[in-house]
Amino acid sequence: MSASLFHMIAGAPAPVAPFSHAVEAGGWVFLTGQMPSDPDDDAAALPEGVEAQTRRVMDNLKLVLGGLDLGLEHAVSVRVFVTEFKRDYAAMNAVYKTYFPPDRLPARTCVGVTGLARDALVEIDLIARRP
């Protein structure tokens, strides 16, 4: 078995804590949860509202995957963390589902949490598999 690979992706958002953007082991790729941070300006304010934040998070996940020559079509499992679950669950889902074909949705868990880094409304991580 080969050693795990720890990836930091050029152009992806700066980490908000000590972690790699992704870790790869045996063809599995584990992406750290992405925040709705601007990849070009870490000091920029987060987008307003859960819809805009969900789009930014999904686009950030695509940036990390793209840096590994992968895409969302390689995602097999996703975890979503939402701070205002009752208020934002439906709106987050409306944006989230536009990133996947309806017949190719990854397995998913969605959890309501009391807080996220940078006071974000949503954070999403995922596991992908190399073809």
Question: Would you give an account of this structure?
Answer:
It is a single chain. The protein has about 130 residues and is an alpha+beta fold. It has a single domain, classed as RutC-like (60s Ribosomal Protein L30, Chain: A), CATH 3.30.1330.40. It has helices spanning about 50-65, 85-95; strands at about 5, 20-25, 30-35, 75-80, 105-110, 120-130. Helix 1 crosses helix 2.
CATH topology: 60s Ribosomal Protein L30, Chain: A
**Topology as a string of helices (H) and strands (E):** EEEHEHEE
Structural class assignment: alpha+beta
Q: In total, how many beta strands?
A: 6
- The name of the CATH architecture is 2-Layer Sandwich
- Portion in strands: 25-35%
Q: Tags for this entry?
A:
131 residues, alpha+beta, 60s Ribosomal Protein L30, Chain: A, 6 strands, globular
Outline:
This protein is an alpha+beta fold and 131 residues long. It has helices spanning 49-67, 85-96, and strands at residues 5-7, 22-25, 28-34, 75-82, 107-112, 122-129.
